Amino acid sequence: MRLAITGAGGFVGRKVVELALARSDCRSITITDCSLPSTSPDPRLRVIEGDIADPLMQDAVLADADAVIHLAAVLGGAAEADPEASRRMNLDAALDLIHRARGRRFVLASSIAVYGKPPAIIDDDTPCAPTLIYAMHKRMAEIALETAVRRGEIDGVALRIPGVVARPDLAQGLKSAFLSNLFHAMRQGRGFTMPVAPEGRSPIASVHAVAAALLHAAVSSITPGDGRSLLLPALSVQFSDLEAALRQRFPSAPPITYRPDPDVMQGFGMFGDVQAADATHLGYPADRTLAELIARAL
Amino acid sequence: MRLAITGAGGFVGRKVVELALARSDCRSITITDCSLPSTSPDPRLRVIEGDIADPLMQDAVLADADAVIHLAAVLGGAAEADPEASRRMNLDAALDLIHRARGRRFVLASSIAVYGKPPAIIDDDTPCAPTLIYAMHKRMAEIALETAVRRGEIDGVALRIPGVVARPDLAQGLKSAFLSNLFHAMRQGRGFTMPVAPEGRSPIASVHAVAAALLHAAVSSITPGDGRSLLLPALSVQFSDLEAALRQRFPSAPPITYRPDPDVMQGFGMFGDVQAADATHLGYPADRTLAELIARAL
Fold first, then answer.
1. By the 8 A CB rule, do B145 and B156 touch?
2. Which of A205, B15, B258, B264 sits at 20 to 30 Å (Cα–Cα) from B237?
3. What CATH number is given to the structural domain containing A192?
Protein backbone atom coordinates (compact mmCIF):
# COMPACT_ATOMS: atom_id res chain seq x y z
CA MET A 1 0.00 0.00 0.00
CA ARG A 2 1.10 3.53 -0.81
CA LEU A 3 -0.38 5.78 1.87
CA ALA A 4 -0.80 9.57 2.09
CA ILE A 5 -1.48 11.24 5.45
CA THR A 6 -2.61 14.86 5.64
CA GLY A 7 -2.27 16.74 8.91
CA ALA A 8 0.63 14.40 9.57
CA GLY A 9 2.28 16.90 11.92
CA GLY A 10 -0.66 16.92 14.29
CA PHE A 11 -1.11 14.90 17.45
CA VAL A 12 -3.10 12.08 15.85
CA GLY A 13 -1.19 12.36 12.57
CA ARG A 14 2.20 11.73 14.16
CA LYS A 15 0.89 8.55 15.79
CA VAL A 16 -0.60 7.37 12.47
CA VAL A 17 2.79 7.91 10.80
CA GLU A 18 4.51 5.97 13.58
CA LEU A 19 2.11 3.02 13.24
CA ALA A 20 2.32 3.12 9.43
CA LEU A 21 6.11 2.99 9.53
CA ALA A 22 5.84 -0.13 11.69
CA ARG A 23 3.87 -1.92 8.96
CA SER A 24 5.80 -3.76 6.28
CA ASP A 25 2.88 -3.48 3.83
CA CYS A 26 3.21 0.34 3.70
CA ARG A 27 5.58 0.67 0.73
CA SER A 28 5.36 4.44 0.49
CA ILE A 29 4.14 6.99 3.03
CA THR A 30 3.54 10.55 1.87
CA ILE A 31 3.18 12.87 4.84
CA THR A 32 1.98 16.44 4.55
CA ASP A 33 1.21 19.39 6.80
CA CYS A 34 1.85 23.16 6.92
CA SER A 35 5.04 22.35 8.77
CA LEU A 36 6.43 18.99 9.78
CA PRO A 37 8.91 18.07 12.47
CA SER A 38 12.04 16.40 11.21
CA THR A 39 11.24 12.73 10.84
CA SER A 40 13.00 9.44 10.83
CA PRO A 41 15.15 8.86 7.75
CA ASP A 42 12.95 5.96 6.61
CA PRO A 43 13.33 5.69 2.82
CA ARG A 44 9.59 5.05 2.47
CA LEU A 45 8.74 8.58 3.64
CA ARG A 46 7.87 11.36 1.19
CA VAL A 47 7.60 14.71 3.02
CA ILE A 48 5.57 17.55 1.47
CA GLU A 49 5.06 20.79 3.38
CA GLY A 50 2.33 23.16 2.29
CA ASP A 51 -1.35 24.09 2.37
CA ILE A 52 -3.52 21.07 1.61
CA ALA A 53 -6.32 23.43 0.51
CA ASP A 54 -4.17 24.24 -2.54
CA PRO A 55 -5.16 22.07 -5.55
CA LEU A 56 -1.53 21.77 -6.69
CA MET A 57 -0.58 20.50 -3.23
CA GLN A 58 -3.43 18.01 -3.40
CA ASP A 59 -2.18 16.63 -6.70
CA ALA A 60 1.36 16.35 -5.34
CA VAL A 61 0.17 14.53 -2.23
CA LEU A 62 -2.03 12.13 -4.18
CA ALA A 63 0.52 11.44 -6.92
CA ASP A 64 2.13 8.51 -5.16
CA ALA A 65 -0.75 7.22 -3.04
CA ASP A 66 -3.52 4.69 -3.40
CA ALA A 67 -4.93 5.35 0.09
CA VAL A 68 -5.40 8.67 1.89
CA ILE A 69 -5.97 9.43 5.57
CA HIS A 70 -7.27 13.01 5.68
CA LEU A 71 -6.59 14.47 9.12
CA ALA A 72 -5.79 18.10 8.26
CA ALA A 73 -8.46 20.25 9.89
CA VAL A 74 -9.25 23.45 11.72
CA LEU A 75 -10.37 22.03 15.08
CA GLY A 76 -13.41 22.90 17.19
CA GLY A 77 -12.57 26.06 19.10
CA ALA A 78 -10.49 27.49 16.24
CA ALA A 79 -13.36 26.86 13.81
CA GLU A 80 -15.79 28.68 16.12
CA ALA A 81 -13.40 31.62 16.25
CA ASP A 82 -12.89 31.69 12.46
CA PRO A 83 -15.78 30.07 10.54
CA GLU A 84 -14.30 31.15 7.20
CA ALA A 85 -11.07 29.26 7.93
CA SER A 86 -13.17 26.24 8.89
CA ARG A 87 -15.15 26.43 5.67
CA ARG A 88 -11.98 26.70 3.61
CA MET A 89 -10.22 23.75 5.26
CA ASN A 90 -12.91 21.52 6.74
CA LEU A 91 -15.35 21.86 3.84
CA ASP A 92 -13.81 23.18 0.61
CA ALA A 93 -10.42 21.48 0.87
CA ALA A 94 -12.04 18.21 1.92
CA LEU A 95 -14.49 18.30 -1.02
CA ASP A 96 -11.65 19.06 -3.44
CA LEU A 97 -9.48 16.30 -2.04
CA ILE A 98 -12.30 13.74 -2.13
CA HIS A 99 -12.93 14.68 -5.75
CA ARG A 100 -9.26 14.46 -6.73
CA ALA A 101 -8.77 11.18 -4.84
CA ARG A 102 -11.22 9.26 -7.04
CA GLY A 103 -10.24 5.67 -7.54
CA ARG A 104 -8.31 5.62 -4.28
CA ARG A 105 -9.19 4.55 -0.77
CA PHE A 106 -10.15 7.60 1.31
CA VAL A 107 -10.41 7.83 5.11
CA LEU A 108 -11.85 11.06 6.48
CA ALA A 109 -11.26 11.94 10.10
CA SER A 110 -14.64 13.12 11.37
CA SER A 111 -15.86 13.58 14.92
CA ILE A 112 -18.59 12.58 17.33
CA ALA A 113 -19.27 16.34 17.43
CA VAL A 114 -21.52 15.71 14.39
CA TYR A 115 -24.17 14.41 16.82
CA GLY A 116 -24.43 17.83 18.46
CA LYS A 117 -26.13 17.92 21.84
CA PRO A 118 -25.35 14.39 23.01
CA PRO A 119 -28.27 11.97 23.12
CA ALA A 120 -28.57 9.49 25.99
CA ILE A 121 -26.89 6.78 23.96
CA ILE A 122 -24.87 7.20 20.78
CA ASP A 123 -25.09 4.27 18.40
CA ASP A 124 -24.89 3.58 14.68
CA ASP A 125 -28.39 4.98 14.11
CA THR A 126 -28.04 8.21 16.07
CA PRO A 127 -29.01 11.11 13.78
CA CYS A 128 -26.56 13.97 13.28
CA ALA A 129 -27.49 17.40 14.59
CA PRO A 130 -24.31 19.48 14.67
CA THR A 131 -24.18 22.74 16.58
CA LEU A 132 -20.47 23.59 16.24
CA ILE A 133 -19.13 25.14 13.01
CA TYR A 134 -16.45 22.45 12.97
CA ALA A 135 -19.03 19.69 13.26
CA MET A 136 -21.26 21.26 10.60
CA HIS A 137 -18.44 21.32 8.04
CA LYS A 138 -17.29 17.81 9.00
CA ARG A 139 -20.83 16.55 8.47
CA MET A 140 -20.91 18.14 5.02
CA ALA A 141 -17.59 16.52 4.13
CA GLU A 142 -18.96 13.18 5.35
CA ILE A 143 -21.89 13.61 2.97
CA ALA A 144 -19.52 14.28 0.07
CA LEU A 145 -17.61 11.09 0.84
CA GLU A 146 -20.72 8.98 1.50
CA THR A 147 -22.29 10.12 -1.78
CA ALA A 148 -19.10 9.47 -3.77
CA VAL A 149 -18.96 5.95 -2.27
CA ARG A 150 -22.61 5.30 -3.16
CA ARG A 151 -21.90 6.53 -6.68
CA GLY A 152 -18.95 4.14 -6.97
CA GLU A 153 -16.51 7.01 -7.54
CA ILE A 154 -14.36 6.37 -4.51
CA ASP A 155 -13.86 3.74 -1.85
CA GLY A 156 -13.77 5.01 1.69
CA VAL A 157 -15.27 5.88 4.99
CA ALA A 158 -15.48 8.75 7.46
CA LEU A 159 -14.65 7.80 11.04
CA ARG A 160 -16.38 9.65 13.88
CA ILE A 161 -13.62 10.06 16.42
CA PRO A 162 -14.30 10.59 20.14
CA GLY A 163 -12.20 12.76 22.48
CA VAL A 164 -8.56 11.77 21.94
CA VAL A 165 -6.31 11.59 25.00
CA ALA A 166 -3.84 12.69 26.00
CA ARG A 167 -3.18 15.61 23.66
CA PRO A 168 -0.16 17.79 24.44
CA ASP A 169 -0.80 20.32 27.20
CA LEU A 170 -1.09 23.27 24.84
CA ALA A 171 -3.73 25.69 23.71
CA GLN A 172 -5.17 23.70 20.80
CA GLY A 173 -8.36 25.49 19.90
CA LEU A 174 -10.10 22.56 21.55
CA LYS A 175 -12.93 23.08 24.02
CA SER A 176 -12.42 19.52 25.21
CA ALA A 177 -8.76 20.15 26.16
CA PHE A 178 -9.58 19.56 29.83
CA LEU A 179 -9.90 15.84 29.10
CA SER A 180 -6.23 15.63 28.17
CA ASN A 181 -5.06 18.23 30.66
CA LEU A 182 -6.36 16.13 33.55
CA PHE A 183 -3.86 13.43 32.54
CA HIS A 184 -0.97 15.90 32.41
CA ALA A 185 -1.86 17.60 35.70
CA MET A 186 -2.11 14.36 37.66
CA ARG A 187 1.08 12.97 36.13
CA GLN A 188 2.90 16.18 37.02
CA GLY A 189 1.37 16.33 40.51
CA ARG A 190 -0.33 19.66 39.80
CA GLY A 191 -3.74 20.70 41.05
CA PHE A 192 -6.37 20.99 38.33
CA THR A 193 -9.87 22.35 37.96
CA MET A 194 -12.23 20.41 35.72
CA PRO A 195 -14.88 22.62 33.99
CA VAL A 196 -17.41 19.80 34.37
CA ALA A 197 -19.24 17.97 37.14
CA PRO A 198 -17.64 14.79 38.60
CA GLU A 199 -20.67 12.73 37.54
CA GLY A 200 -20.44 14.01 33.95
CA ARG A 201 -19.30 11.65 31.20
CA SER A 202 -17.45 12.00 27.93
CA PRO A 203 -16.47 9.34 25.35
CA ILE A 204 -12.70 9.12 25.03
CA ALA A 205 -10.13 6.96 23.29
CA SER A 206 -6.36 6.76 23.42
CA VAL A 207 -4.46 8.30 20.53
CA HIS A 208 -3.08 4.82 19.88
CA ALA A 209 -6.54 3.33 19.44
CA VAL A 210 -7.66 6.20 17.18
CA ALA A 211 -4.53 6.07 15.01
CA ALA A 212 -4.85 2.29 14.72
CA ALA A 213 -8.49 2.68 13.68
CA LEU A 214 -7.59 5.20 10.97
CA LEU A 215 -4.94 2.85 9.64
CA HIS A 216 -7.35 -0.10 9.82
CA ALA A 217 -9.78 1.90 7.69
CA ALA A 218 -7.04 2.70 5.17
CA VAL A 219 -5.74 -0.85 4.75
CA SER A 220 -9.01 -2.74 4.86
CA SER A 221 -11.48 -2.16 2.11
CA ILE A 222 -14.23 -3.09 4.53
CA THR A 223 -16.82 -0.35 4.75
CA PRO A 224 -20.27 -0.22 6.24
CA GLY A 225 -23.07 -0.66 3.73
CA ASP A 226 -24.24 2.28 1.67
CA GLY A 227 -21.07 4.33 2.28
CA ARG A 228 -22.24 5.67 5.59
CA SER A 229 -19.92 7.20 8.14
CA LEU A 230 -18.76 5.07 11.02
CA LEU A 231 -18.93 5.73 14.74
CA LEU A 232 -15.68 4.62 16.38
CA PRO A 233 -15.69 2.74 19.69
CA ALA A 234 -15.04 4.87 22.77
CA LEU A 235 -15.16 4.49 26.52
CA SER A 236 -17.74 6.85 27.95
CA VAL A 237 -16.05 7.54 31.25
CA GLN A 238 -17.47 9.31 34.27
CA PHE A 239 -14.98 12.05 35.18
CA SER A 240 -14.72 10.96 38.84
CA ASP A 241 -13.90 7.41 37.66
CA LEU A 242 -11.23 8.77 35.32
CA GLU A 243 -9.73 10.73 38.22
CA ALA A 244 -9.79 7.62 40.44
CA ALA A 245 -8.12 5.47 37.77
CA LEU A 246 -5.41 8.08 37.21
CA ARG A 247 -4.93 8.34 40.99
CA GLN A 248 -4.05 4.64 41.12
CA ARG A 249 -1.03 5.49 38.94
CA PHE A 250 -0.31 8.85 40.54
CA PRO A 251 -1.37 8.45 44.21
CA SER A 252 0.35 11.66 45.33
CA ALA A 253 -1.49 13.93 42.86
CA PRO A 254 -3.39 16.68 44.69
CA PRO A 255 -7.21 16.54 44.67
CA ILE A 256 -9.02 17.61 41.52
CA THR A 257 -11.53 20.43 41.78
CA TYR A 258 -14.77 20.34 39.77
CA ARG A 259 -16.26 23.69 38.81
CA PRO A 260 -18.79 23.00 36.04
CA ASP A 261 -19.01 25.51 33.20
CA PRO A 262 -22.54 25.12 31.74
CA ASP A 263 -21.31 25.42 28.14
CA VAL A 264 -18.50 22.88 28.53
CA MET A 265 -20.76 20.57 30.52
CA GLN A 266 -23.42 20.84 27.80
CA GLY A 267 -20.93 20.16 25.04
CA PHE A 268 -18.68 17.55 26.61
CA GLY A 269 -20.10 16.33 29.91
CA MET A 270 -23.59 15.04 29.13
CA PHE A 271 -22.75 11.97 27.07
CA GLY A 272 -24.09 8.51 27.72
CA ASP A 273 -22.72 5.25 26.39
CA VAL A 274 -21.21 4.86 22.94
CA GLN A 275 -22.31 1.63 21.27
CA ALA A 276 -20.26 1.31 18.09
CA ALA A 277 -21.59 -2.09 16.98
CA ASP A 278 -20.75 -1.64 13.28
CA ALA A 279 -17.13 -0.65 13.92
CA THR A 280 -16.67 -3.50 16.39
CA HIS A 281 -18.15 -5.93 13.87
CA LEU A 282 -15.77 -4.59 11.20
CA GLY A 283 -12.77 -5.27 13.41
CA TYR A 284 -11.86 -1.71 14.37
CA PRO A 285 -9.37 -1.64 17.23
CA ALA A 286 -10.37 0.00 20.51
CA ASP A 287 -9.23 0.49 24.10
CA ARG A 288 -10.68 -2.48 25.93
CA THR A 289 -10.55 -1.09 29.46
CA LEU A 290 -10.01 2.25 31.15
CA ALA A 291 -6.69 0.92 32.50
CA GLU A 292 -5.55 0.09 28.95
CA LEU A 293 -6.71 3.49 27.71
CA ILE A 294 -4.74 5.27 30.45
CA ALA A 295 -1.61 3.19 29.90
CA ARG A 296 -1.68 3.99 26.17
CA ALA A 297 -2.59 7.64 26.69
CA LEU A 298 0.42 8.20 28.93
CA MET B 1 -43.73 41.11 5.51
CA ARG B 2 -41.00 42.09 3.10
CA LEU B 3 -40.20 39.01 1.01
CA ALA B 4 -37.30 38.16 -1.31
CA ILE B 5 -37.63 35.30 -3.80
CA THR B 6 -34.57 33.92 -5.62
CA GLY B 7 -35.06 31.88 -8.78
CA ALA B 8 -38.23 33.92 -9.21
CA GLY B 9 -38.19 33.41 -12.99
CA GLY B 10 -38.43 29.64 -12.68
CA PHE B 11 -41.52 27.47 -12.83
CA VAL B 12 -42.07 27.29 -9.08
CA GLY B 13 -40.74 30.83 -8.53
CA ARG B 14 -43.30 32.43 -10.82
CA LYS B 15 -46.13 30.72 -8.94
CA VAL B 16 -44.70 31.86 -5.59
CA VAL B 17 -44.59 35.45 -6.89
CA GLU B 18 -48.19 35.17 -8.09
CA LEU B 19 -49.38 33.88 -4.70
CA ALA B 20 -47.32 36.47 -2.81
CA LEU B 21 -48.82 39.31 -4.87
CA ALA B 22 -52.26 38.05 -3.89
CA ARG B 23 -51.44 38.49 -0.19
CA SER B 24 -52.07 41.88 1.37
CA ASP B 25 -49.47 41.22 4.11
CA CYS B 26 -46.63 41.15 1.55
CA ARG B 27 -45.59 44.81 1.65
CA SER B 28 -42.53 44.39 -0.52
CA ILE B 29 -41.54 41.56 -2.85
CA THR B 30 -37.99 41.47 -4.18
CA ILE B 31 -37.71 39.05 -7.09
CA THR B 32 -34.42 37.96 -8.57
CA ASP B 33 -33.10 35.61 -11.25
CA CYS B 34 -30.55 35.63 -14.09
CA SER B 35 -33.30 36.95 -16.28
CA LEU B 36 -36.89 37.70 -15.44
CA PRO B 37 -39.94 37.95 -17.66
CA SER B 38 -41.65 41.33 -17.64
CA THR B 39 -43.91 41.34 -14.65
CA SER B 40 -47.07 43.01 -13.48
CA PRO B 41 -46.58 46.69 -12.61
CA ASP B 42 -47.39 46.07 -8.94
CA PRO B 43 -45.67 48.81 -6.93
CA ARG B 44 -44.63 46.29 -4.29
CA LEU B 45 -42.29 44.50 -6.72
CA ARG B 46 -38.53 45.10 -6.72
CA VAL B 47 -36.89 43.38 -9.69
CA ILE B 48 -33.18 42.53 -9.57
CA GLU B 49 -31.57 40.60 -12.41
CA GLY B 50 -28.19 38.95 -11.84
CA ASP B 51 -26.23 36.02 -10.48
CA ILE B 52 -27.34 35.17 -6.94
CA ALA B 53 -23.95 33.51 -6.32
CA ASP B 54 -22.43 37.03 -6.40
CA PRO B 55 -22.10 38.45 -2.85
CA LEU B 56 -23.01 41.95 -4.01
CA MET B 57 -26.18 40.57 -5.56
CA GLN B 58 -26.97 38.79 -2.32
CA ASP B 59 -26.67 42.01 -0.36
CA ALA B 60 -28.88 43.84 -2.83
CA VAL B 61 -31.54 41.14 -2.70
CA LEU B 62 -31.51 40.97 1.10
CA ALA B 63 -31.44 44.74 1.63
CA ASP B 64 -35.20 45.14 1.67
CA ALA B 65 -36.32 41.73 2.93
CA ASP B 66 -37.06 40.13 6.25
CA ALA B 67 -37.94 36.75 4.73
CA VAL B 68 -36.25 34.87 1.90
CA ILE B 69 -37.46 32.00 -0.26
CA HIS B 70 -34.35 30.57 -1.91
CA LEU B 71 -35.35 28.72 -5.06
CA ALA B 72 -32.42 29.48 -7.38
CA ALA B 73 -30.71 26.18 -8.18
CA VAL B 74 -29.00 24.06 -10.77
CA LEU B 75 -31.51 21.22 -11.07
CA GLY B 76 -30.93 17.45 -11.10
CA GLY B 77 -29.88 16.52 -14.62
CA ALA B 78 -27.97 19.78 -15.13
CA ALA B 79 -26.09 19.23 -11.87
CA GLU B 80 -25.11 15.71 -12.94
CA ALA B 81 -23.78 17.15 -16.21
CA ASP B 82 -21.86 19.97 -14.48
CA PRO B 83 -21.01 19.17 -10.83
CA GLU B 84 -18.90 22.34 -10.53
CA ALA B 85 -21.87 24.51 -11.46
CA SER B 86 -23.95 22.62 -8.91
CA ARG B 87 -21.34 23.18 -6.21
CA ARG B 88 -21.14 26.87 -7.00
CA MET B 89 -24.92 27.45 -6.96
CA ASN B 90 -26.46 24.69 -4.85
CA LEU B 91 -23.76 24.68 -2.17
CA ASP B 92 -21.53 27.78 -2.13
CA ALA B 93 -24.17 30.36 -3.04
CA ALA B 94 -26.64 28.80 -0.60
CA LEU B 95 -24.11 28.83 2.24
CA ASP B 96 -23.22 32.45 1.52
CA LEU B 97 -26.87 33.49 1.35
CA ILE B 98 -27.75 31.67 4.59
CA HIS B 99 -24.83 33.44 6.26
CA ARG B 100 -25.78 36.87 4.94
CA ALA B 101 -29.48 36.38 5.75
CA ARG B 102 -28.87 36.15 9.51
CA GLY B 103 -31.69 37.58 11.55
CA ARG B 104 -34.17 36.96 8.77
CA ARG B 105 -36.58 34.15 8.03
CA PHE B 106 -35.06 31.75 5.49
CA VAL B 107 -36.87 29.11 3.44
CA LEU B 108 -34.65 26.78 1.43
CA ALA B 109 -36.16 24.80 -1.43
CA SER B 110 -34.76 21.30 -1.02
CA SER B 111 -35.90 18.04 -2.55
CA ILE B 112 -37.00 14.52 -1.72
CA ALA B 113 -33.97 13.54 -3.82
CA VAL B 114 -31.98 13.86 -0.55
CA TYR B 115 -33.37 10.43 0.42
CA GLY B 116 -31.56 8.81 -2.50
CA LYS B 117 -32.72 5.34 -3.46
CA PRO B 118 -36.31 5.54 -2.25
CA PRO B 119 -37.16 3.50 0.83
CA ALA B 120 -40.51 1.70 1.05
CA ILE B 121 -42.07 4.57 2.96
CA ILE B 122 -40.74 8.11 3.29
CA ASP B 123 -41.61 9.77 6.57
CA ASP B 124 -40.17 12.40 8.91
CA ASP B 125 -37.55 9.97 10.24
CA THR B 126 -36.26 8.62 6.93
CA PRO B 127 -32.48 9.06 6.82
CA CYS B 128 -30.91 10.93 3.92
CA ALA B 129 -28.69 9.01 1.51
CA PRO B 130 -28.27 11.17 -1.60
CA THR B 131 -26.89 9.69 -4.80
CA LEU B 132 -27.37 12.64 -7.18
CA ILE B 133 -24.91 15.56 -7.17
CA TYR B 134 -27.89 17.91 -6.88
CA ALA B 135 -29.22 16.05 -3.85
CA MET B 136 -25.78 15.90 -2.22
CA HIS B 137 -25.35 19.67 -2.42
CA LYS B 138 -28.94 20.30 -1.31
CA ARG B 139 -28.36 18.09 1.74
CA MET B 140 -25.24 20.09 2.60
CA ALA B 141 -27.17 23.35 2.31
CA GLU B 142 -29.89 21.87 4.54
CA ILE B 143 -27.21 21.14 7.16
CA ALA B 144 -25.97 24.74 7.00
CA LEU B 145 -29.50 26.02 7.59
CA GLU B 146 -30.35 23.46 10.29
CA THR B 147 -27.14 24.26 12.17
CA ALA B 148 -27.68 28.02 11.92
CA VAL B 149 -31.22 27.54 13.29
CA ARG B 150 -29.93 25.41 16.18
CA ARG B 151 -27.33 28.10 16.89
CA GLY B 152 -30.04 30.77 16.97
CA GLU B 153 -28.42 32.68 14.10
CA ILE B 154 -31.33 32.44 11.71
CA ASP B 155 -34.95 31.38 11.69
CA GLY B 156 -35.97 29.06 8.93
CA VAL B 157 -36.57 25.68 7.41
CA ALA B 158 -35.64 23.63 4.35
CA LEU B 159 -38.61 22.06 2.58
CA ARG B 160 -38.14 18.73 0.81
CA ILE B 161 -40.19 19.14 -2.33
CA PRO B 162 -41.56 16.17 -4.31
CA GLY B 163 -41.93 16.04 -8.11
CA VAL B 164 -43.68 19.26 -9.18
CA VAL B 165 -46.27 19.02 -11.94
CA ALA B 166 -46.86 20.12 -14.56
CA ARG B 167 -43.60 21.81 -15.52
CA PRO B 168 -43.46 23.36 -18.99
CA ASP B 169 -42.83 20.85 -21.74
CA LEU B 170 -39.19 21.82 -22.22
CA ALA B 171 -35.79 20.31 -21.70
CA GLN B 172 -35.20 21.31 -18.09
CA GLY B 173 -32.23 19.26 -16.99
CA LEU B 174 -34.74 17.21 -15.04
CA LYS B 175 -34.68 13.43 -15.16
CA SER B 176 -38.21 13.42 -13.79
CA ALA B 177 -39.53 15.50 -16.71
CA PHE B 178 -41.67 12.55 -17.86
CA LEU B 179 -43.99 13.19 -14.91
CA SER B 180 -44.95 16.59 -16.29
CA ASN B 181 -44.73 15.59 -19.93
CA LEU B 182 -47.44 12.96 -19.44
CA PHE B 183 -49.84 15.80 -18.53
CA HIS B 184 -48.93 17.80 -21.64
CA ALA B 185 -49.09 14.82 -24.02
CA MET B 186 -52.53 13.71 -22.86
CA ARG B 187 -53.90 17.26 -22.90
CA GLN B 188 -52.59 17.73 -26.43
CA GLY B 189 -53.82 14.31 -27.59
CA ARG B 190 -50.30 13.12 -28.37
CA GLY B 191 -48.97 9.62 -27.84
CA PHE B 192 -46.34 9.36 -25.13
CA THR B 193 -43.85 6.81 -23.88
CA MET B 194 -43.26 6.67 -20.13
CA PRO B 195 -39.72 5.56 -19.17
CA VAL B 196 -41.16 3.69 -16.18
CA ALA B 197 -43.40 0.71 -15.48
CA PRO B 198 -47.18 1.31 -15.13
CA GLU B 199 -47.13 -0.08 -11.58
CA GLY B 200 -44.27 2.27 -10.59
CA ARG B 201 -44.99 5.16 -8.23
CA SER B 202 -43.58 8.64 -7.71
CA PRO B 203 -44.57 11.30 -5.15
CA ILE B 204 -45.90 14.41 -6.88
CA ALA B 205 -47.50 17.71 -5.96
CA SER B 206 -49.07 20.50 -7.96
CA VAL B 207 -47.00 23.64 -8.43
CA HIS B 208 -49.79 25.47 -6.61
CA ALA B 209 -49.44 23.28 -3.51
CA VAL B 210 -45.64 23.59 -3.52
CA ALA B 211 -45.66 27.37 -3.98
CA ALA B 212 -48.27 27.72 -1.23
CA ALA B 213 -46.12 25.57 1.07
CA LEU B 214 -43.04 27.74 0.43
CA LEU B 215 -45.05 30.85 1.20
CA HIS B 216 -46.53 29.21 4.32
CA ALA B 217 -42.98 28.53 5.50
CA ALA B 218 -41.99 32.14 4.86
CA VAL B 219 -44.92 33.78 6.63
CA SER B 220 -45.26 31.42 9.58
CA SER B 221 -42.46 31.25 12.07
CA ILE B 222 -43.51 27.71 12.84
CA THR B 223 -40.63 25.31 12.36
CA PRO B 224 -40.10 21.72 13.36
CA GLY B 225 -38.09 21.26 16.53
CA ASP B 226 -34.30 21.42 16.40
CA GLY B 227 -34.20 23.19 13.03
CA ARG B 228 -34.56 20.04 11.03
CA SER B 229 -35.62 20.00 7.42
CA LEU B 230 -39.22 19.24 6.60
CA LEU B 231 -40.67 16.65 4.25
CA LEU B 232 -43.57 18.17 2.30
CA PRO B 233 -46.78 16.24 1.72
CA ALA B 234 -47.08 14.52 -1.65
CA LEU B 235 -49.37 12.07 -3.37
CA SER B 236 -47.42 8.94 -4.25
CA VAL B 237 -49.30 8.03 -7.40
CA GLN B 238 -49.09 4.82 -9.39
CA PHE B 239 -48.38 5.82 -13.00
CA SER B 240 -51.27 3.77 -14.41
CA ASP B 241 -53.62 5.53 -11.94
CA LEU B 242 -52.27 8.91 -13.03
CA GLU B 243 -52.89 7.98 -16.67
CA ALA B 244 -56.42 6.82 -15.82
CA ALA B 245 -57.20 10.03 -13.93
CA LEU B 246 -55.88 12.17 -16.78
CA ARG B 247 -57.91 10.07 -19.24
CA GLN B 248 -61.11 11.05 -17.44
CA ARG B 249 -60.35 14.63 -18.46
CA PHE B 250 -58.93 13.80 -21.89
CA PRO B 251 -60.84 10.71 -23.03
CA SER B 252 -59.63 10.93 -26.62
CA ALA B 253 -55.91 10.88 -25.75
CA PRO B 254 -54.11 7.97 -27.43
CA PRO B 255 -52.85 5.11 -25.25
CA ILE B 256 -49.70 5.65 -23.24
CA THR B 257 -46.78 3.30 -23.81
CA TYR B 258 -44.62 2.14 -20.90
CA ARG B 259 -41.01 1.29 -21.70
CA PRO B 260 -39.14 1.21 -18.38
CA ASP B 261 -35.60 2.61 -18.33
CA PRO B 262 -33.85 0.93 -15.37
CA ASP B 263 -32.12 4.18 -14.29
CA VAL B 264 -35.26 6.30 -14.41
CA MET B 265 -37.29 3.55 -12.76
CA GLN B 266 -34.68 3.26 -10.02
CA GLY B 267 -34.58 7.02 -9.44
CA PHE B 268 -38.23 7.96 -9.86
CA GLY B 269 -40.43 4.89 -10.09
CA MET B 270 -39.75 2.89 -6.94
CA PHE B 271 -41.27 5.17 -4.32
CA GLY B 272 -43.77 4.11 -1.72
CA ASP B 273 -46.03 6.34 0.34
CA VAL B 274 -45.00 9.74 1.62
CA GLN B 275 -46.15 10.32 5.19
CA ALA B 276 -45.40 13.96 6.00
CA ALA B 277 -46.90 14.03 9.49
CA ASP B 278 -44.84 17.00 10.75
CA ALA B 279 -45.72 19.23 7.79
CA THR B 280 -49.38 18.30 8.04
CA HIS B 281 -49.34 19.06 11.76
CA LEU B 282 -47.72 22.44 11.04
CA GLY B 283 -50.51 23.37 8.64
CA TYR B 284 -48.65 23.04 5.36
CA PRO B 285 -51.02 23.08 2.38
CA ALA B 286 -51.20 20.04 0.11
CA ASP B 287 -53.18 18.54 -2.75
CA ARG B 288 -55.92 16.55 -1.04
CA THR B 289 -56.82 14.25 -3.91
CA LEU B 290 -55.40 13.23 -7.26
CA ALA B 291 -58.33 15.00 -8.93
CA GLU B 292 -57.44 18.24 -7.13
CA LEU B 293 -53.76 17.81 -8.00
CA ILE B 294 -54.60 17.34 -11.70
CA ALA B 295 -57.00 20.27 -11.78
CA ARG B 296 -54.33 22.54 -10.25
CA ALA B 297 -51.51 21.14 -12.37
CA LEU B 298 -53.38 21.93 -15.57
1. yes
2. B15
3. 3.90.25
